[in-house]
TrEMBL record:
<dbReference type="InterPro" id="IPR011333">
    <property type="entry name" value="SKP1/BTB/POZ_sf"/>
</dbReference>
<dbReference type="Pfam" id="PF25553">
    <property type="entry name" value="BTB-POZ_ANK-like"/>
</dbReference>
<protein>
    <recommendedName>
        <fullName>BTB domain-containing protein</fullName>
    </recommendedName>
</protein>
<dbReference type="Pfam" id="PF00651">
    <property type="entry name" value="BTB"/>
</dbReference>
<comment type="pathway">
    <text>Protein modification; protein ubiquitination.</text>
</comment>
<feature type="region of interest" description="Disordered">
    <location>
        <begin position="43"/>
        <end position="67"/>
    </location>
</feature>
<comment type="function">
    <text>May act as a substrate-specific adapter of an E3 ubiquitin-protein ligase complex (CUL3-RBX1-BTB) which mediates the ubiquitination and subsequent proteasomal degradation of target proteins.</text>
</comment>
<keyword id="KW-0833">Ubl conjugation pathway</keyword>
<feature type="domain" description="At3g05675-like ankyrin-like">
    <location>
        <begin position="277"/>
        <end position="514"/>
    </location>
</feature>
<dbReference type="InterPro" id="IPR038920">
    <property type="entry name" value="At3g05675-like"/>
</dbReference>
<dbReference type="InterPro" id="IPR000210">
    <property type="entry name" value="BTB/POZ_dom"/>
</dbReference>
<dbReference type="GO" id="GO:0016567">
    <property type="term" value="P:protein ubiquitination"/>
</dbReference>
<feature type="domain" description="BTB">
    <location>
        <begin position="142"/>
        <end position="231"/>
    </location>
</feature>
<dbReference type="InterPro" id="IPR058039">
    <property type="entry name" value="At3g05675-like_ankyrin"/>
</dbReference>
């Protein structure tokens, strides 16, 4: 039973309001919300609205008097509830004349005038032998009627406070309670035999609040029950997980065993993380299920980008890059082998059944290489990949021997490298850039029409800008050689060829305009210098 009393309760008709606080048979106090006290006090409404007497109106002679029936006042049994002092109700006076009673507007009491003292009793009523007074913020006070023996059996804090005091001590105050509700709940748990059953319906945030109070009170059995709860219950969202981990780590710093809870976020496995990442990548690369492979590539790429954003992730970066390059070389060897098989099978008209699986594998390996290149580009480590790809002269030669439907996936890798160089995502050496253009620009031009219409992710403007910027990073003589070769292809193919007019204009100005403008720019300077000397 819960008894909540407030002082200044006077005789007479009193407003009675059931406060939403309950004590279980075992003494556990249940608060409906973390601010149950404040909401209760602010939302008080009187049950019996007062009807003060009004002056009797004048009665004319031709009207009959109507007898007024007196109503007996209703008696309400007073149970263990909260009563509020200085709030009286008045019964209207009967003058024996029928007159309409006009109730006056009742003003609600201000919140600051409402008493903020609440009393709670644990265990059997009338058996408590001491009181614990919790003084919270804003003058809020909770008086707990408790049993000294129960508190000393469960709490080191109360043991220290009460053991050295006089036997007749019957009151203990705890000042500056940040969370009065959690104190009340935690003390109530000292009266429970099965704390886990009491915690099972609570939220994680509420259990964390109880855990904090239990830690302050030295309530070890409650701490253990809270840890068991946190170890079993799901943590929803990163914010909740961070709160749990911070609370548990605080306990760990005080020497309390919290290993079962922390095992959810840490591991004692001897394999380094990079071995696990390598295994995950291998599983994704070897998958033949298109949808699952595509989704997991997106997920892994996103998670690796999150790792790259961490300032402390620079240590194992080199090891991870080695893993990606090892997988890239394996995919390149597989792609070259598949190209050779496709070239051998292509002349035969009876080999359609054998050629189709090879074509699918070519597309798969090209997609794998594009994914690995994307990972390296995010890590600013794709320079070596550009050199590996530029050195694939044999693969580029076989490229022209296959139909475009079988080979165009490879040109996506070339396009991505040009885009990366154009955006500054990778900075290969001059010889690597020149070799890349010599080896793969013409195959890309040959597949350009198909890429525009058969590849959804292909962005023509971005690719053309990347190719042009890559060309313009070379010496002027190399720019001229590559752009004149492109000009011949563009005049024949038109829209089926990359439009490098911007790069062509830049090269033109560098070649034919800048030398003369620079020479003429020196003349005004010399003339102005001479003019200034003459003035002096």
């Amino acid at each position: 039973m819960a008894e909540i009393r407030l002082p200044k309760v006077e005789q007479g008709q009193t407003k009675i309001r059931n406060v939403p606080i309950a004590v279980t048979p075992e003494g556990f106090w249940c608060c409906p919300s973390p601010v149950g006290f404040q909401k209760t006090l602010k939302s008080q409404k009187p049950l019996n609205k007062p009807k003060p007497s009004s002056p009797p109106p004048q009665v004319t002679a031709h009207k009959k008097q109507i007898p007024v029936t007196e109503k007996k006042p209703m008696t309400t049994p007073i149970k263990p509830t909260a009563t509020y002092g200085d709030q009286r109700t008045f019964t209207p006076v009967n003058h024996g004349i029928s007159a309409p009673v006009v109730p006056e507007r009742v003003l609600r009491p201000k919140v600051e005038h409402v008493p903020r003292n609440v009393a709670i009793e644990y265990g059997e009523p009338g058996t408590s032998d001491m009181k614990v007074i919790l003084l919270g913020k804003q003058g809020f006070c909770v008086k707990l009627s408790v049993h000294k023996k129960v508190l000393m059996e469960h709490s080191c804090f109360f043991t220290d406070k009460l053991s050295g005091q006089e036997p007749g001590l019957s009151c203990l105050e705890i000042d500056d309670c940040e969370d009065v509700e959690s104190y009340v709940e935690t003390v109530g748990l000292m009266y429970c035999k099965e704390m886990k059953q009491r915690l099972i319906k609570q939220s994680v945030s509420r259990v964390l609040r109880i855990l904090k109070v239990a830690e302050l009170l030295g309530f070890n059995s409650c701490i253990q029950s809270c840890l068991e709860y946190l170890e079993a219950v799901p943590w929803v969202g990163e914010e909740e997980e961070d709160k749990v981990v911070s609370s548990v780590l605080r306990l760990q710093g005080e020497g309390i065993g919290v290993t079962p809870v922390l095992k959810r976020i840490s591991s004692n496995v001897t394999n380094p993380p990079n071995d696990t990442i390598s295994h995950i990548m291998e599983l994704v690369l070897k998958s033949n299920e298109e949808r699952g492979r595509r989704e997991m590539k997106s997920v892994v790429l996103k998670l690796l980008r999150e790792n790259n954003s961490l300032p402390s992730y620079g240590g194992p970066a080199d090891v991870c890059n080695e893993t990606v390059y090892t997988l890239s070389r394996s995919c390149l060897d597989s792609l070259l082998s598949l190209f050779k098989q496709a070239v051998e099978l292509e002349p035969s008209d009876k080999s359609m059944d054998r050629r189709e699986p090879v074509v699918k594998q070519i597309a798969l390996e090209a997609d794998n290489l594009s994914w690995l290149l994307e990972i390296l580009a995010d890590r600013q480590s794709a320079d070596e990949f550009a050199l590996m790809w530029a050195s694939q002269q044999e693969l580029a030669t076989l490229h022209s021997k296959l139909p475009i439907v079988s080979r165009h996936h490879v040109s996506c890798i070339t396009a991505r490298l040009f885009v990366g160089i154009g955006k500054g995502e990778l900075l290969p050496a001059k010889d690597t850039r020149q070799l890349l253009l010599q080896t793969w620009l013409q195959p890309l031009i040959n597949d350009y029409n198909w890429l525009q219409h058969g590849c959804r992710s292909f962005d023509r403007k971005v690719v053309e800008e990347g190719i042009g910027r890559t060309i313009l990073t070379l010496p002027l003589e190399d720019q001229q050689s590559i752009l004149l070769t492109w000009l011949g292809s563009f005049l024949k193919a038109g829209d089926n060829c990359p439009n490098l007019q911007r790069a062509f204009e830049v090269w033109w100005r560098r070649t034919f305009i800048r030398p003369y403008s620079d020479a003429q720019g020196n003349v005004p300077q010399s003339d102005s210098a001479m003019a200034s000397k003459q003035q002096d």
